[in-house]
Amino acid sequence: RRAKWRCDLRLRSIILIQATARRHLARINTKTIAKKKLIESAVTASKVQELRERTSAKCIQFWWRIVLDWMKEKKAALTIERFFIFVKAEVDREVQKREAKRLTKEKKRREQ
Fold this sequence. Notes:
The protein is mainly α and about 110 residues long. The chain is about 100% helix and about 0% strand. The protein has 1 helix and no strands.
């Protein structure tokens, strides 16, 4: 009888110790899983943020290149416009010289 009682006591004690150990291991495992999930969510959020920043940077760079191209075109157009204004002034001077020569020739013909 005493041996059976001791055996039952040991069995109950073993079951209690095993349950406590399993509960402790489950808590550690749950904390580890929670930490892994937290790290994974942080990494995912970081990747999402990086993707947003990269996309924004590409968009800004694209539009800035358009602005720079427009500025170059504007500068080239102004240079060409200045050149044509200079040529027009030169042509106008030449036309005035020829007109003045023609008028002097006509005046000399009339006088003769």
